[in-house]
Amino acid sequence: MMFKPRTRKKTLKHAPLWFAFTGLVVFSLVACGSSSSPGPSPTATTSAPPSATPTPLRVTRVDLAVNPTSIAGRPCGSSASFSYIATFHMPAGTAGGTVQFLYTVNNGRSSSSASVPVSPGEMTKTFPFTSSGTLSPDHTYPGIAQVLVSSPNAVSSPRVKPAGVCTEASAFKVTSIDMTVSPKSLTGLSCGTTLTVTYTATFHLAPNSPGGTIDFLYTWNNGRASPSASTSVGPGQTTATYSFTWSGQLLADHVLPGYGGVTTTSPNAISSPLVKPEGLCA
Question: Which residue, 70, 177, 228, 242, could crosslink 164 as a Cys pair with Cβ 3.0–4.6 Å?
């Protein structure tokens, strides 16, 4: 008996399962990747604040100061000078312009006009002025100072004057004179040594005087020679000094350096003690 060989039926071969699974994974990853891409970033916006509108110029107050602040103790009849400074205050943000005003140093009996420019936004402005005169025994000088603004608006400073009053002046007079000498001693110096000796006179004056000039004679050899000299004294000054010298060799006869001193001739006559270095050269 003959057997026929078996023939296998050809069957369609399918792709392996791992390929299909891989494809699904790839597809899934691609799909996930496309869905996670970032979107557009939001844009930040800023807006500048609106600019402030300048306001018309206006003076809110005026300060006024004087220097010196007091005349207490100063002699009446002496000359004096005073410096004043006015400070104008404006609010912030002003448009600028010109401040016009009057100022007085004698309580309004006379006044001067002036003005100061103000730049946009400027908040303070100063104006200096001065006054000079003689301190009056009736205390009318220095007077009251004040600043009165007329434009852009009306405003006044406080009324200002130096504190205190002057002191009644006494007559210009020398009350006493002190004398000193340097070196004070010649002890230990050899005769024949060249030396300079300085004599100093200190004039004492009556307080609260108007000042003036002291005229006098001075000597370093007990009056055998007496040159003339003078020194000026300011108002209220109570002391003044004057120095003169002798230079030469110390001699064995001990005549020089001699006695030194001064005698005033004006404003009144008065003499100092006479002084000389102590001791003798050897």
Answer: 70
Task: Give, in words, the CATH class of 174-271.
Answer: mainly beta
The residue to which tokens 């108002």 are assigned: 235
Token readout for 72 is 């207490």
**What span, in angstroms and rounded, lies between the C-alpha atoms of 205 and 211?**
9
**33 SS3 class:** helix
- CA gap 204, 165 in Å, rounded: 25
Query: What's at 261, amino acid-wise?
Result: G
Domain ranges (residues) in the chain: 61-156, 174-271
The conformation of residue 128, written as its DSSP 8-state character, comes to E
Which tokens go with 208?
A: 């609260």
Per-residue DSSP letter, 34: H
Kindly indicate the confidence band of residue 235, based on its pLDDT and cuts at 50, 70 and 90. confident
Do 220 and 196 meet the contact criterion of CB atoms below 8 Å apart?
Answer: no
- What type of residue sits at position 275? V
Question: pLDDT tens digits for 144-167?
Answer: 999 999 999 999 999 999 999 988
274: left (phi over 0), alpha (psi -120 to 50) or beta: beta
Q: Which of 143, 149, 2, 131 is nearest to 63 (CA)?
A: 149
Cα–chain center distance at 116 = 23
Average pLDDT for residues 245-272, to the nearest whole number? 94
At the topology level of CATH, where does 61-156 sit?
Answer: Immunoglobulin-like (2.60.40)
* Tokens found for residue 142: 């220095």
- pLDDT at position 52: 67
Average pLDDT, the chain: 85
